[in-house]
């Protein structure tokens, strides 16, 4: 089993998707800026996206993949396909009802999730109009996530990894060519979201048919496998929704702050999602089916080894990413967003939101590895209890930080809460003897910190020589930034090599797995 090879392939596709996502955000920033219209769209897009992350990609995958893996490895094909049919049927029924309720109750939803918009009737009306268009996105993207869960259980990771690209392409095309056909133009983005969700689902269906898992959905409340999934999904919704619930509550807080706050936090969130998605989400997606497979086969040493491998890789890549993103935050925002209606003031405000996010990046990524460790063996209560504690602490920090730090305080609370979440998850793994660390962790971390210090010195030195980050067009800015990033990355990995740590070591270990 060569996990490193699989991780590299998935990461490359994810990087492509994230790059297109940045192109998407650059176009939105350039054509629409950061103001009332973008605030309205980001809230309208965030709500169905929030449900997707919790319900589909979060709770559904965490509850469904371990049971599906068990059926695939221990039961016949007929029972496995029967499980898929009943889960997909129930999911379609629930999603249909949720979509209809969301469209009909859009004003009420905005009233609850962005109450600050009530002070501006035009902003409030535009937001719920956009939400009525975007809300059915949850239907298509959740079914696409179900398809992805099935494909990853069959060790087919590349197709679902490629699917999100279609959403970015859809928004890019509508931004460039469709905005002039809508009034107001921002409505074009809402329809682009719907088309993107439909394309993500359609793209995966041929692969499902190829492996023989494309079945007709059906509803049978007496199916035992379905109820096992539902039983796990309830607590899993709480367990995987900590950061998402915090983001929604942050939107409520931000809606009371100055106009543009929601947009600044969105752009900062998008930037932090790049390393978090490429490493954290990719690792979590890759590890979950293998962890579940190890548990279903009784291979507990393999299970512990996989966790150790994931944690080491997290620290290896997350620490330099966090430092580099913090140091290069302003040049990065300038290179990607500071064009057209996106002003220097918007850059400064986005940087104020991004810096606290970078502080918590390592914690955010660690949670992506630690949480699946519990769900893969169907131990739901522990992460749920930790999630509740984390949500409460996050909101207490919000109240403490928001008055002095404004929107930056909201992102700081999420970053700090991520470390609390990760620490408690790790403590429970060790307490339950579910994970036994491999030897050499202390030396490993000291070497990482030494290499990170060298990289920090190099990046700060380069920053002192380059001052005009806002000069030139986008290509020049990006090339300038990429050169600095490459030099910084080169210094980090060169230092690691001199200290005896190489990426190939992870590959060799897994080859012996």
UniProtKB/TrEMBL annotation:
Pathway: Cell wall biogenesis; peptidoglycan biosynthesis
CC annotations in GO: plasma membrane
Major subcellular site: membrane
Statement: the UniProt record of this protein carries the keyword Ligase: no
Transmembrane residue ranges: 83-109, 129-150, 157-179, 185-203, 232-254, 274-292, 313-333, 353-371, 383-403, 409-427, 448-469, 481-501
A Gene Ontology biological process term: lipid translocation
Lipid biosynthesis found in the keyword field: no
Membrane topology: Multi-pass membrane protein
Keywords: Cell inner membrane, Cell membrane, Cell shape, Cell wall biogenesis/degradation, Membrane, Peptidoglycan synthesis, Transmembrane, Transmembrane helix, Transport
Subcellular location: Cell inner membrane; Cell membrane
A Pfam cross-reference name: MurJ
Physiological role: Involved in peptidoglycan biosynthesis. Transports lipid-linked peptidoglycan precursors from the inner to the outer leaflet of the cytoplasmic membrane.
PANTHER family named in the record: LIPID II FLIPPASE MURJ
Protein name in the entry: Probable lipid II flippase MurJ
Organism: Candidatus Profftia tarda
